Amino acid sequence: MPQTLDAVAVRGWCAQALDALGRDREAIDAINVYPVADGDTGTNLYLTMESAAQAVEAVFAAYPEPPVYAGVPPTADVVRAMAHGALLGARGNSGTILAQLLRGMAEVVAAGEGDLALALDRAASAAYQAVAHPVEGTVLTVAAAAAKAAAGANGTPAAVAQAAYAGARDALDATPSQLAALGRAGVVDAGGRGLVTMLGALVQALSGEAPVVRREAPVPVPVDDCPAEAAGAGPAFEVIYLLEAGDAAVDRLRARLDRLGESLVVVGGDGLWNVHVHVDDAGAAVEAGVEAGRPHRIRITHFEQPTPVEPPREQVQRAVVAVVPGEGLAGLCSEAGATTVLARPGEAPASGELVEAIRRAHAREVVLLPNDAELRHTAAAAVEQARAEGIRVALIPTRAAVQGIAALAVHAPERRFDEDVVAMTSAAGATRHAELAVAERQSWTMAGVCQAGDVLGLIDGDVVVIGQDLAGTARTVLDRMLAAGGELVTLVLSADAPPDLAAQLESHVGKAHLAVDTVVYEGGRQGVPLLIGVE
Fold first, then answer.
1. Which of 164, 201, 446, 503 could form a disulfide with 146 if both were Cys (CB 3.0 to 4.6 A apart)?
2. In sequence order, what are the residues at sequence separation of 6 or more whose Cβ sits closer than 8 angstroms to the Cβ of residue 289?
3. What is the DSSP letter of 280?
């Protein structure tokens, strides 16, 4: 039965869009040639939508089933969370524009206007305004076409969504004739393809039926028939950061960054913005943000440039690539011979970063330790790409850094590859993991209702303890974990943890659990105060 665009429909759309982008991610990455041919548009869209979907799920988690609540939050809260989550997690040029598209839709829906056509029109307008120099033949063109088609449709929201999907699909097929880079490559715009995927998911969420997707490849357009565009290597860096600043300061920032580089997109509002720009001077772009307000979650990516050919170094037989949450563990794993990828708080690595680390390991065989349950799709995508390049890669589904440490401890490159992978997988699987985190807001958990500032003890990903202080909560978590047995406790402390926390916990384990050893590592800035492993 057709639905209205209410909280449940928005939740379903987010989930189905994430699933669809996951399926299409590689195909979208493969046709990414504009504005920079860095092959990550699909991945960036997926990660941006993943952040939006997680924010929506968090809102639903705060509204449990009857008799406490009706189980469904207000639609306005859900769409605002979707837009805010996308803003916080926006990746790359495409993800930043997607965040603005969702924000534009959310403004209409949150205002109580159930007009999907109006929401799509606001989304397209907002996206055009966010881009310093809009270019036709991109996702902007596809969004505008979707809005125009929706405006001419009548009937249910599902019918409007179907019209928007059809209009976007037709506009996508025409993009090679509008942009020379696409015409030369014989591909459609990658960002536009991602938007078509998302609109298809919207049709399914509202109607219950998946739209028919045409799979024909676009006809390559002769270069002479395409509009002229500038050629050149382009800027060396992509700079992205969140910025807390007022509207006037952001207007000045836009003007300054426009002079510094290109592909400038600034999205957001109400004091929080996501800034994206391609520049040669990354430091100047960050300094501009500091002058405008408070930038954080700064990401600087160096675009690969042609380099002089060097004599190839000899490949090693086997290597380990590990994702780590802090500088301390990065040093520890590097000392153990692993190639590391740093996952900063709130900034999970993209599949391209994992592939680059696999290449950097320069080995015939590679064991990948993602060390985070949320990286399962990203890691799987990286493994597929590396295998396509002829590298033998095994993915061990480690869900936490302490499991990665346990796997790395039994790594023996002299063993046969399969035997080594089995041993590392067994060691990781035998390690229960926990972490202590600080609640940011009131919410419902498996252990009850927590308030902002409470200390949460999570075992294997589930909240089991709500406490008031780190040491006391950590002792409770350790006792619960060791009640089932254990021989070794691993503690990884954040740089922000109290200086005496490790000594307190070592003393507690020694007194309360005989014959259990404890090892302590400094994790650096890792997002949570304490990680715990029990083997």
1. 164
2. 241, 243, 253, 275, 295, 298
3. S
